[in-house]
Specification:
heterodimer; A: 504 residues; mainly alpha; two-stranded antiparallel sheet; B: 175 residues; 2 domains
Chain lengths: 504, 175
Amino acid sequence: MDSLAGLTKGFAIALTPINLLWCLLGTTLGTAIGVLPGLGPALTIALLLPITFKVDPTAAFILFAGIYYGAMYGGSTTSILLNTPGESATIVTALEGNKMARKGRAGAALATAAIGSFVAGTIGTLGLTFLAPLVVDVALRFGPADYFALMVLAFVTVSAVLGSSAVRGLTALVIGIWLGMIGVDLQTGQARFTFGVPELLDGINVIIVAVGLFAVGETLYMASRASTGQDEVIPLKGSLWMTRDEWRRSWPAWLRGTAFGFPIGAMPAGGAEIPTFLSYYTEKKLSKYPEEFGHGAIEGVAGPEAANNASAAGVLVPMLTLGLPTSATAAIMLSAFQSYGINPGPLLFQTQPDLVWGLIASLFIGNVMLLVLNLPMIAIWVKMLMIPQPLLYAGILVFATIGTYGITQSIVDLLLLYAVGFAGYLMRRYDFPTAPVIIGMILGPLAEQNLRQAMTISAGDWSVFFTRPLSASLLALAALALVAPVLYELWSRSRSRVTTATKA
Amino acid sequence: MDTNIPAGATRRSGRGELAIAIGVIGLALVIYWQVQVMPASPLYSKVGPALVPTLAAIGLFGLGCALLNAAIRGGWQTDEEAAAAPDRAALAWVAAGLALNVLLIGVAGFTIASTLLFLCVARGFGSRRIVRDAGIGFTFAVIAYFGFAKTLGINIGAGFVENTVEGLLPFIRKG
């Protein structure tokens, strides 16, 4: 009953006019940047981080969470009408959604995506409401060694397991950890990697890295591919009302998608892509109309869209209860907490109950707003898709400049932004994931801090990580996640060698 | 797992990948060198400031070697990506816009620097309507300056344009 009491109080906070306005602003902005290709929630929240100096934390996090949820809704519009996924988590939506739109059923595709997102978002937020206090109870028993092990596990899963290549994912992660260590070491006062530049003593601001990678790098990459032309926007045709048959085919897919999305999002691995793929293949297997897949099957939109929204709610579980971000957006939100001097973790529910429950209640309200924003008002967002690419990317770079130069008015920061942007371009071109850089940068220093605390408690005895059952099993899981794919690869390779040998 | 080249396919040079791999190894060496020149901390701590950076350097070195191995075997890019030559002219326009922005933002103020950045990037993406782009860029920059920056309370370089607009504001309100 703890959750219900908290939630009631949370609604009282979230329903105040000013917080409703923040929520509306967040969800509207989130939908807009979700619709626009090239802009994502991580970049947007990074650009808005200076707001943490002006407004109270509850308002700021209601705004950020609205952006986070809104981007998931808006991304599906772009996938369906433009076939260019607005967000990585909506790639699968484009497979069937765009085909539906080409057949003149764009309205039904948008409707099943929006309603599915609403259903999944609401169930996911309910899941967050009731799961989070349970996780807190467990997390309160965690020692520094366990936290360190948990972070190692998260490092491995977000970089090595979820991407297309473990080596490139880990490279991105280690570079992120290194960026996070630049500056004065808080425990010993030792300057690290500052190369004699005084501006680097305070460390590199995560805003610069996020904006550099997601705005400058992305723009450079798109410019290098500018000559390949732009996808056409499919005009919005067809009724927004789903037929009886479409409802009947959609709702089981929504529920199954939610069942994939929330638990996977809530695990310390996180990520919204995996559950969308799982949902897609499940729907394809279970569908009575498998022949429609690849030609615009509504289940193929309904399931993955529900999955990505449910996972967005799931990601907030480790984020709020353990202080463990498992996506780039969550990592930026964690840095917003740090900017307020708040430590997200199990104690957050005791020290900041108004913030936590106000935020969770606003997620319920935000979902309702997003349903309205994305169905009756869909025509507005379709107009945004018509913004020509040259103006869109030019605008993104102007905003990137404000966001970085505005913090310190330092040319050094601007040059750093462009350097990171060039690195981001190379990463994009050579298929390195960028999210692990941000996660490594935020989580790396926390992992180091926990490592040090654990070693101080154990008086320098390294065996502490293997004698504590929790930390030992988490580290074992991390090792397994790292080694198992390699072993499987070797095994299947040797097996295929054996079969070819016997055939010959 | 990145080197599954179908039998019979011609091997690409993978020169870009080679450069990336060498760059990663180089970065690992720089990190290691920086750790070596770090003075020993007089403060007592069980885990000193050098341990995690050392591990990062060693890890990155290993990863760089793995990348090098993959690059030598033909690279990891998809054929489609490797075949598409980057549009150098477009990149040059964007880079020029960024360079102008750095040079001018202090001297000429945010609006002028941003308008030029906007123009160059739009040109890089293939727009030829210079007057329209300049107009949109200028309006956008002014709105962004007064809307975004002032609301967030961040102070970006004011120049001639910003001061003029700010000076005119009282008259507009009165008028």
